[in-house]
């Protein structure tokens, strides 16, 4: 690979180790960073000085923000000026190193799990990190030299002294005067000095200039530093709505001056720009593989992500051949980026490289079949803001609570509704693409089929019909052009042989939940089940749902990275397909160069071992033991034959007047669509036909299956 500017791969700097999971600057955090990162990863240490002059690694000048000192050394907090601002807290300048022996590191970011806080993680000195961890490189950050000078502690003397026994690859500081004072003491071939920029409007204390103004004079920076460390927003600004603005010239300008450029503030568990679709690898790639510039390194709380981006995904073209087998199946198209089942969601999924498009089929009052993720219009549209609000009703057989159902409106009425993007994690203030939350138009089934057949990039035609009764699949059994897929509607840990044998009588493959493969307990993997291996032993391919990019959708074990999760299901559990709201992430995963390497697979592309994090949870923080999921029994699968089907006016069970006919005598014509009086219920099975050249398709049906079956047969003939 050829990297812009220096020609070397960008560096990965692990801020406090793997601080996105374990307490910052702890042994656990440093160990994990070394285990799952590129071989030349740099360990970052924020240096604070104790009362007796020891240099310790703690991320915040206020010790209570990263340790349990407030409960161990009570009533010893004080108020000091920090950069001119009166600040109350516990400060290292008031304690000797022996006094801090019983103070332990804790997770300082409250949105992250605290379950590892009971490990008694002692505060490490700079020498501890260098000698016990033996990192490939060490980065010392000196954030508050002036503060320590005010308390008669000499950071310059400490750095010069420790450098005699510890090799620091990089030393950074946001204070110009400090870097000037040490510049002549370090050979840049051995230790490089880096000027750290803070917010553009913040004042650099030794020059009394804003960091924004200092950025305009990189020639001066070059006189005392070999590089600059800037917040990522200096390079790719975002507006107040969290959308990317055009990139700046910071990287190019700094490179012209001979300065290296490092970007900071990378974390997987904070809201990213919506342009990245909650995919942290996409964000990393925008800084290292955009065709115009590349930074020389990234400072991150999650070093596995840039490690993977740099060595597995960078410079891999969209036309690169797939290195992994899983079928990428969309969930209502690219529903993470656009309102589900709209033309825009489907076109985006095709552009993203999806293998199979899905269409959950609903029926309008006039019998028109169309694609929508839910039979309840409230879930996918702004119908409650329309004149159809008076159609709200309760049908517990379909869905708990009230709803406005598709069969209450004609197709022409549904076309007047505004689509609404799904926001499954709005309780966490994580929203999907708000700028396009109400765009696109819904498609009839025939429009969807036409769109699919015109997409040459799709691997085949895939049609599924979802029903509340597995007996529906039997009706398709004689259609040997179909691959029939059975959806298990509950979490399981295994399946009895008799149940699997029963499934094989009417289905060719199975859909299961993620929890049926890797069960969780309070967002920690509790183990691995036998579900996939059992089904595959009967030659039933297994597809798993639903994969999402938002970090809160993933167990902590997957390190807040959707690619880590997908890799663990594909390479660890050997699943045959993934059903996802974000097909771009899964499709890109299949092309990465780190797959298929056998024993040479790098650690950052290795699969997560279930329960690997549980071993670091002490008894105080251990979640209660959960009962295991049930084993799928034959009684869960076996169902009686379907009852006769009634066809008549499209009134569902809300009004009568239907005549009864047998399913096999239904007219193929769309004009004969009627609504079965059989109660509608949540779906269980999905059916999928075999691939055909020229398009890919997944169609889900939640009602009136018999009529739709004959109509689909006509469309596909």
Automatic annotation (TrEMBL):
One GO biological process term: lipid metabolic process
Top-rank EC class of the record's enzyme: hydrolase
The keyword Signal is assigned to this record: yes
Transmembrane intervals: none
Keyword annotations of the record: Glycerol metabolism, Hydrolase, Signal
Entry's EC annotation: 3.1.4.46
Domain GP-PDE: residue ranges: 10-310, 326-590
Reaction(s) catalysed by this chain's protein: a sn-glycero-3-phosphodiester + H2O = an alcohol + sn-glycerol 3-phosphate + H(+)
Top-rank taxon, per record: Eukaryota
Gene Ontology molecular function: glycerophosphodiester phosphodiesterase activity
Family the UniProt entry places it in: Belongs to the glycerophosphoryl diester phosphodiesterase family.
Species of provenance: Morella rubra
The protein's name: glycerophosphodiester phosphodiesterase
């Amino acid at each position: 690979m050829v990297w812009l500017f220096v020609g070397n791969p960008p560096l990965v700097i692990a801020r406090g180790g793997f601080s996105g999971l374990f307490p910052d600057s702890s042994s656990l955090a440093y160990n994990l960073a070394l285990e799952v990162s590129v071989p030349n990863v740099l360990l970052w240490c924020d240096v604070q000085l104790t009362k007796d002059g020891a240099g310790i690694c703690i991320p915040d000048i206020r010790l209570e923000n990263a340790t349990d000192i407030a409960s161990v050394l009570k009533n010893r907090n004080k108020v000091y000026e920090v950069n001119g601002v009166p600040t109350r807290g516990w400060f290292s300048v008031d304690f000797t190193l022996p006094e801090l022996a019983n103070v332990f590191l804790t997770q300082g970011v409250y949105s992250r799990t605290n379950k590892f806080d009971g490990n008694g993680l002692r505060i490490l000195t700079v020498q501890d990190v260098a000698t016990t961890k033996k990192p490939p490189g060490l980065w010392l950050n000196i954030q508050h030299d002036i503060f320590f000078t005010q308390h008669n502690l000499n950071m310059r003397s400490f750095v010069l002294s420790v450098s005699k026994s510890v090799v620091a690859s990089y030393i950074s500081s946001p204070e110009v005067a400090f870097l000037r004072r040490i510049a002549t003491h370090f050979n840049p071939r051995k230790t490089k000095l880096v000027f750290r920029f803070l917010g553009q409007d913040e004042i650099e204390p030794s020059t009394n200039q804003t960091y924004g103004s200092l950025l305009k004079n990189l020639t001066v920076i070059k006189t005392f530093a070999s590089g600059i460390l800037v917040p990522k927003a200096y390079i790719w600004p975002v507006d107040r709505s969290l959308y990317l603005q055009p990139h700046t010239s910071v990287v190019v300008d700094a490179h012209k001056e001979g300065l290296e450029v490092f970007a900071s503030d990378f974390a997987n568990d904070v809201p990213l720009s919506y342009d990245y679709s909650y995919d942290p690898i996409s964000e990393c790639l925008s800084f290292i593989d955009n065709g115009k510039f590349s930074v020389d390194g990234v400072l991150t709380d999650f070093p596995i992500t840039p490690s993977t981006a740099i060595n597995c995904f960078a410079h891999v073209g969209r036309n690169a051949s797939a290195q992994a087998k899983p079928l990428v199946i969309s969930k209502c198209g690219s529903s993470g980026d656009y309102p589900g089942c709209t033309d825009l969601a489907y076109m985006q999924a095709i552009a993203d490289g999806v293998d199979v498009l899905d269409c959950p089929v609903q029926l309008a009052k006039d019998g028109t079949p169309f694609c929508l993720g839910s039979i309840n219009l409230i879930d996918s549209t702004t119908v409650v803001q329309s004149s159809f609000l008076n159609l709200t009703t309760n049908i517990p057989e379909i869905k708990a609570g009230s709803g406005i159902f598709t069969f209450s409106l004609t197709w022409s009425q549904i076309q007047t509704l505004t689509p609404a993007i799904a926001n499954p994690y709005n309780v966490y203030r994580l929203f999907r693409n708000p700028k396009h939350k109400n765009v696109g138009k819904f498609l009839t089934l025939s429009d969807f089929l036409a769109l699919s057949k015109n997409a040459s990039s799709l691997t085949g035609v895939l049609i599924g019909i979802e029903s509340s009764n597995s007996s529906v699949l039997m009706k398709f059994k004689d259609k040997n052009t179909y691959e029939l897929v059975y959806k298990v509607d509950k979490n399981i840990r295994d399946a009895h042989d008799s149940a699997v044998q029963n499934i094989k009588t009417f289905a060719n493959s199975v859909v299961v939940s993620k929890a049926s493969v890797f069960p969780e307990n309070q967002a920690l993997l509790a183990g691995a089940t036998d579900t996939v291996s059992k089904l595959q032993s009967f030659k039933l391919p297994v597809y798993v749902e639903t994969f999402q990019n938002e970090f809160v959708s993933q167990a902590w074990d997957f390190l807040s990275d959707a690619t880590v999760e997908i890799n663990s299901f594909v390479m660890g559990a050997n699943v045959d397909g993934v059903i996802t709201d974000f097909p771009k992430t899964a499709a890109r995963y299949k092309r990465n160069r780190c797959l298929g390497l056998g024993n040479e697979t790098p650690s950052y592309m290795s699969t997560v071992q279930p329960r690997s994090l549980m071993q670091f949870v002490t008894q105080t923080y251990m979640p209660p033991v959960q009962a295991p999921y049930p084993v799928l029994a034959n009684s869960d699968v076996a169902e009686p034959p379907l009852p006769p089907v009634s066809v008549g006016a499209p009134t569902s069970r809300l009004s009568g007047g239907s005549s009864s006919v047998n399913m096999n005598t239904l007219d193929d014509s769309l004009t004969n669509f009627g609504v079965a009086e059989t109660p509608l219920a949540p779906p269980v099975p999905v059916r999928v036909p075999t691939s055909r050249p020229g398009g890919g398709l997944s169609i889900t049906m939640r009602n009136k299956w018999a009529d739709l079956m004959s109509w689909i047969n006509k469309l596909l003939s």
